[in-house]
Write a structure and sequence with these properties.
The complex is a heterodimer of chains A (864) and B (360). Chain A has 864 residues and is α+β, with helices and mostly antiparallel strands. Among the domains of chain A are: 203 residues, no CATH class; 171 residues, no CATH class; 163 residues, no CATH class. Chain A contains 28 helices and 21 strands. In chain A, the strands form three sheets. Chain A has a nine-stranded mixed sheet. Chain A has a six-stranded mixed barrel with strand order 3-4-9-6-8-7, surrounded by four helices. In chain A, strand 7 and strand 8 form a beta hairpin. In chain A, helix 2 runs antiparallel to helix 9 and helix 18 packs across helix 26. The C terminus of chain A is likely disordered. Chain B is mainly beta and 360 residues long. Chain B has one domain: AttH-like fold, CATH 2.40.370.10. In chain B, the strands form two sheets. In chain B, strands 1, 2, 3, 4, 5, 6, 7, 8, 9, 10, 11, 12 and 13 form a 13-stranded antiparallel sheet that branches. In chain B, strands 14, 15, 16, 17, 18, 19, 20, 21, 22 and 23 form a ten-stranded antiparallel sheet that branches. The N terminus of chain B is likely disordered. Classes of the chains: A alpha+beta (864), B mainly beta (360). Chains A and B meet through helix 3 and helix 6 of A and helix 1 and strand 4 of B.
Chain lengths: 864, 360
């Protein structure tokens, strides 16, 4: 049934239909170009989606793991350093009622390694064992209660046994240990063989073991120690209020941790790394935006005559603008949606291959299920569309502002882009970048520095038309002066010199992506060099060993230490005790290294970044790593409250440390022993006597000291190699991003020329009419592409060097708190630039050859 | 009462029944029970309890029953473990108030390993504590003080024994089954004079009274389990109005018969009365628990020699749900004894093994 529609509605429909035709024709005219632009957007969105999803999944899983291990206690008393004297339990208990705490459960958590007698070469599995008092845990953390196997000597008979351990299903599966079997755990040099007596109520997916507290203290070598006390609050008592009431009575080595702080600490762990990756993903998106800009700009130029016709026929500016923006919106929407889906696929693949790690090493051993964060992904798609629309804005304005009659007469691609051939925008952006670089980090993140990088990049691209317009005429003039004879070369140079606006469209992607690639190459090369140098300083010995130490067990007792040092073939032996300290409940723990230091010459052992001072009388000298100094705002001479006895600690120097992003402190082993009474050490460094190899030394050591079976030994060379491999792996995702951006940029070059082949059909027709063969044309375009790409690569490299400096001197210190010296791998950059120019030439040539099938006459006749 | 329940439930819950490195002291017929040493704990044995039950007169309210128990249990945890948290010895405390106006028991319990957090016993005198729950004997006066501070009940009483402890069985060696090792060391303290304060209820419903009354203390220790044919037991301890006391128990077999039965009656001076035949237990009234659906014989006629004692509970519902701690349901409550329709004494009755087949 047809009812006459109101005229207005009919008119609207007609406008929409026309708009659809315009968009469709633009698509048909240059599919390659649209596809490339869409692909660029897709790459950006895909990477952002993948990074977010992987990290979100890892965090969710890790958070869950942390929650499981903590049994969701509402409040905890935890150790600032290592472990607590187990009498803290009574201290807390005495204060509990007054603080509104109605459940107090002492816990000893020990990170152990599981010995695999069946596979001695395999990497040992880690297993966190919780020692609990079941009578108390039942009230406070019921989820952690052991579930005895019914068949195991009667229900519950093993709950209090001295040799029973209860494994969560995931731990049972991972270790292949069923109830009734035994497992062997190592903590330090302590080896405990325990009977698997059942499961654990909570954490089906988590690897977790639970045993009796008394048995754990004894079997795992932690007599008299606790790692935490879990608390349950009475109804209506606020955690902060209870924490405040408890704090006063606690010994200095204990602190009260709120559950929020736990979550905060978790999220802080990988925050900077995550933000860095996300910024890189946004950069890919950014590159996409230029391609969208180029595609939309060219399409609207192509359609200028049509637009003019529509304008003459009465179409208003809104309609024209709408059509151009619709083109930009459509391509970016399609790209964003495809990108989001691809990103989820990529996330799944990454989770499968690397786990939740993202190559950063923050969540080892976590194989999380994928968590899809729909709101953020929708927001990312919206961001992609927004970026596309922004890219279409200038061409849309241009399409509207052209005077119809003029536009009808000659559609020139240059008109739309002419106003870009001015240096002012670029200079303004550069000034803004300089301003941003002066700003400090925001909320611990180098937001301003990233914004400065964006400004620099934008400035570099904005400067392209002006640079081309300035540079190429000079080149042309010089070439002419030198007597340029080959017409193809002259044509190519002249053509580029005459159309600087188009040049920007062609190589914006190249400049952007190569700039970022160079920036990353410079940063990574500098970083890698710094790490390699640092490794040499910190690994002076031949052989390094580490026992599976943890908060509980430093591992190697004095007697064993002496035996190791006295072993034939050992020229010198040094020992270090490493443990973790909590200085701030909301931040990840910092490392504490107690090692032999010469009071007068700490720089012999530590890669100090500046001069060291002597400690003031009565104070203990500690040395802060760069991240520690930065995170806790410590300068040389500052006092720092370390939870080791009641001594006064003064920072006497700051040293470079690329290993512990969350900070570390080093002090002399003798001081550490004096303050803590802890005589054990966890790390061994051995200098091998002449005539012995590290391998032979290790063999002798292992034979002489079977107690060291659980220790991991590596030669200094192997450690260096391993460290650098880990370093490289952590940049794997970065390389992937760069490769994607470069490939997209090259596609951009190819599709620009494919589009130009159509737009320049008349020009080509004239040239062929004048006698140029198809091969000459292709050569000319190849030369144009090569010239422009070479220029893009050089300009991109220059920009990249600047951005690299920003990364090294701003982003790295602000997000990871470490500094390094700049290294410029110029050879590598030159090689990359040459390859890029060649690829640009080839891409342009291929695109033009494919697009110029028609004969010269047809091309001449074809007119709008 | 849970004393016998513990013989069964505690081992089932917490003690290894498989070969253990721990060897328990055996109950020895020839071992003399001596004081004050045997007021204290005997940690070499597997199980031990101090069991205080009694009737209390309240100001302005009907009489009520109370029960305070400390159990000690030695686990199979290796003696060699030097950790202060090593659960070699456990203490359980259980307290209940039978307020007739309440209709059911108010009861709470605590379980803890001995060692940390003020959980302790003494081997030289009665000195038991789980935090602020305690039962202590003063060596000078010979008086006991019991203190229970729970969420729903609060109890602080002083207990004065009228005379020396009464040794049960043969000089404190009490046979619990047909086999010689099925026995315990056992003494009782009947006719204890109690004074103090109790409070029951939560929040605004909490009421407090000063009380006085008569109580009964049992102290028993053993290492052996019950006969595997046992289904449960019935036990009474009655302070007779004439100053004497009556203790009787029978261990019921799964087949419905009686595996072991014992009765001991003393006069006001604590002299035993020789009984010619074991006591006869005849249920007179049954009550079905709405919680466990178990049917308990809450009224009994117990024939001891020529006397027929009729037992009537203070209230029917004196069932205890111990599923969360030592396991299962049982009935333990204040009962009044009559002979020939006249009040003859007051005490406690324990009924176990009615709720579910007992696990061994």
């Amino acid at each position: 049934m047809t009812r006459a529609r109101p005229a207005r509605a009919r008119f609207t429909l007609a406008r929409l239909t026309l708009a659809r035709w315009f968009v469709a024709s633009a698509w048909r005219a240059q599919r390659g170009r649209w596809l490339t632009a869409g692909a660029a957007v897709a790459v950006g969105i895909a990477l952002a989606t993948a990074i977010h999803t992987v990290n979100r999944s890892a965090l969710a899983e890790f958070q869950q793991a942390i929650d499981v291990v903590n049994g969701a206690a509402s409040l905890q008393v935890v150790a600032r350093a290592g472990t607590l004297d187990d009498r803290v339990f009574e201290t807390v208990l005495a204060r509990a009622a007054a603080a509104g705490v109605d459940g107090v459960s002492p816990v000893l958590a020990v990170d152990t390694q599981v010995a695999r007698p069946d596979a001695p070469g395999e990497r040992a599995e880690r297993l966190t064992v919780l020692g609990l008092d079941v009578f108390r845990a039942a009230q406070v953390t019921p989820a952690l209660m052991p579930l005895p196997e019914p068949g195991d000597g009667g229900a519950g008979s093993s709950l209090l046994a001295d040799d029973a351990v209860f494994l969560s299903p995931a731990a049972q599966a991972a270790l292949g240990a069923r109830p009734g079997q035994t497992i062997t755990l190592r903590s330090g040099l302590t080896v405990a063989t325990l009977r698997v007596a059942g499961g654990v109520a909570a954490g089906a997916g988590q690897r977790l073991a639970v045993m009796d507290l008394g048995a754990a203290q004894w079997r795992l070598g932690a007599l008299g120690r606790l790692t935490r006390v879990d608390l349950r609050l009475a109804e209506g008592v606020a955690p902060a209020q209870a924490a405040a009431a408890l704090r006063g009575d606690l010994p200095p080595e204990a602190e009260v941790a709120l559950p929020e702080a736990r979550a905060q600490r978790m999220s802080n762990l990988s925050r900077a790394y995550r933000v860095n990756l996300n910024v890189l993903a946004l950069v890919a998106l950014f590159t996409g935006a230029f391609l969208v800009f180029a595609a939309v700009g060219l399409a609207s130029v192509r359609q200028r005559a049509q637009f003019a016709l529509m304008a003459v026929l009465g179409a208003d500016a809104r309609w024209t603008r709408g059509v151009v923006l619709a083109q930009a919106g459509a391509v970016s929407l399609a790209g964003s949606v495809v990108g989001a889906l691809a990103g989820l696929g990529l996330a799944r693949a990454l989770l499968g291959i690397f786990g939740g790690d993202l190559g950063g090493g923050y969540f080892p051993g976590v194989m999380p299920p994928m968590v899809v964060d729909a709101p953020v992904i929708v927001a990312l798609v919206a961001l992609g569309v927004a970026v596309g629309l922004a890219a279409g804005w200038l061409p849309a304005r241009e399409a509207v502002s052209a005077r119809p009659v003029e536009a009808l007469r000659h559609g020139s691609a240059e008109t739309a882009l002419r106003r870009l051939a001015q240096p002012w925008a670029a200079l303004g952006l550069l000034a803004l970048a300089a301003l941003l670089l002066a700003l400090p980090p925001i909320d611990g993140l180098p937001i301003a520095a990233y914004a400065a990088i964006a400004c620099i990049l934008l400035a570099a691209i904005a400067a392209v038309p002006w640079l081309v317009a300035t540079l190429f005429p000079v080149l042309l003039a010089r070439a002419e002066a030198r007597g340029l004879e080959r017409p193809v070369a002259w044509l190519a140079l002249a053509r580029v010199a005459q159309s600087p606006g188009q040049a920007a469209g062609v190589i914006a992607g190249v400049v952007a992506s190569f700039a970022l690639t160079v920036a990353m190459v410079v940063m990574v090369a500098s970083f890698r060099h710094a790490v390699a140098d640092w490794l040499h300083v910190v690994l002076p010995a031949d052989l390094y060993g580490r026992v599976p130490s943890n908060a509980v067990a430093g591992g190697i007792p004095p007697a064993l230490r002496e035996r190791i040092a006295a072993l034939p073939g050992v020229a010198r032996a040094e020992f270090t005790r490493t443990l973790e300290l909590s200085l701030d409940a909301a931040r990840p723990a910092v490392g504490l290294l107690a090692r032999p230091l010469e009071a007068n010459a700490p720089q012999a052992r530590l890669p100090l970044t500046g001069p060291a001072i002597a400690p003031p009388p009565g104070a203990v000298a500690v040395y802060a790593s760069e991240p520690a100094a930065d995170l806790y705002r410590l300068a040389v001479g500052a006092e720092v409250a370390l939870p080791l006895g009641s001594a006064r600690f003064v920072v006497c120097g700051i040293y470079r440390d690329y290993a512990r992003q969350h900070g570390a402190f080093t002090l002399a082993l003798a001081d550490y022993r004096r303050l803590t009474g802890d005589e054990t050490v966890s790390d061994i460094a051995l200098w091998v006597a002449p005539g012995t190899t590290p391998a032979a030394m290790l063999e002798r050591l292992r034979a002489a000291e079977p107690a060291l079976a659980g220790a991991e030994f590596r030669s200094a060379d192997a450690l260096r190699t391993l460290s650098l491999r880990i370093f490289d792996r952590s940049f794997a995702l970065t390389y992937l991003l760069e490769a994607a951006a470069l490939i997209v940029a090259l596609f951009g070059v190819a599709s620009s020329y494919a589009g130009q082949a159509l737009a320049r059909a008349r020009e080509f027709g004239v040239l062929r009419h004048l006698g140029l063969g198809t091969r000459d044309l292709v050569r000319q375009v190849a030369l144009e592409g090569g010239l422009l790409s070479a220029f893009g690569a050089l300009w991109g490299a220059a920009t990249g060097l600047v951005i690299g400096l920003v990364l090294i001197h701003r982003v790295n210190p602000q997000s990871f708190h470490w500094t390094m010296e700049t290294r410029l791998p110029l050879g590598l950059i030159a090689l990359g630039a040459a390859a890029l120019a060649l690829c640009g030439a080839i891409a342009a040539a291929l695109a033009v050859r494919a697009a110029t099938g028609a004969g010269p006459l047809a091309a001449l006749k074809e007119d709008w | 009462m849970r004393r016998r329940a513990l013989l069964q439930a505690v081992p089932a819950l917490l003690l290894p029944r498989v070969a253990s490195a721990v060897t328990y002291d055996p109950v020895d017929r020839g071992r003399a029970v001596t004081f004050p040493r045997d007021h204290g704990a005997h940690p070499g044995f597997r199980t031990e309890w101090w069991y205080l039950t009694g009737w209390l007169e309240r100001d302005g309210a009907a009489p009520c029953g109370f029960q305070v128990t400390f159990f000690r249990s030695r686990t199979g945890h290796a003696d060699a473990n030097p950790s202060r948290f090593a659960p070699k010895q456990l203490l359980f405390a259980h307290a209940a108030l039978a307020l007739p106006e309440n209709g059911r028991l108010i009861h709470e319990d605590r379980s803890a390993r001995v060692g940390p957090a003020g959980v302790r016993f003494s081997e030289t005198d009665t000195a038991l504590a789980i935090g602020d729950w305690s039962c202590l004997r003063d060596a000078g006066s010979g008086r006991y003080a019991a203190r229970i501070a729970g969420r729903e009940l609060d109890l602080a009483v002083e207990i004065a024994p009228p005379g020396p402890p009464v040794l049960q069985g043969e000089g404190g060696f009490s046979q619990k089954g047909p086999r010689p090792e099925q026995a315990s060391h056992y003494y009782s303290r009947p006719q204890l004079a109690v004074r103090g304060r109790i409070a029951g209820g939560r929040g605004a419903a909490r009421r407090a009274w000063s009380v006085r009354g008569r109580a009964w203390l049992d102290h028993e220790w053993s290492s052996t389990l019950l006969d595997e044919r046992a289904a449960g037991w019935d036990w009474i301890g009655i302070n007779l109005d004439d100053g004497g006391s009556l203790m009787a128990f029978r261990i019921r077999a799964r087949d419905g018969g009686v595996l072991w039965s014992h009765v001991a009656r003393r006069d006001a001076q604590g002299r035993p009365r020789a009984e010619s035949a074991p006591a006869q237990w005849t249920p007179t009234r049954w009550w079905t628990s709405p919680r466990s659906q178990a049917r308990y014989p809450v009224g009994f006629e117990v024939t001891v020699g020529a006397d027929r004692l009729t037992l009537e509970p203070l209230m029917d519902d004196q069932e205890i749900d111990a599923r969360a701690s030592t396991g299962g349901f049982y009935w333990e409550g204040a009962v009044a004894a009559r002979v020939g329709g006249q009040p003859a004494g007051r005490g406690y009755l324990e009924l176990t093994g009615y709720a579910a087949p007992m696990r061994l």
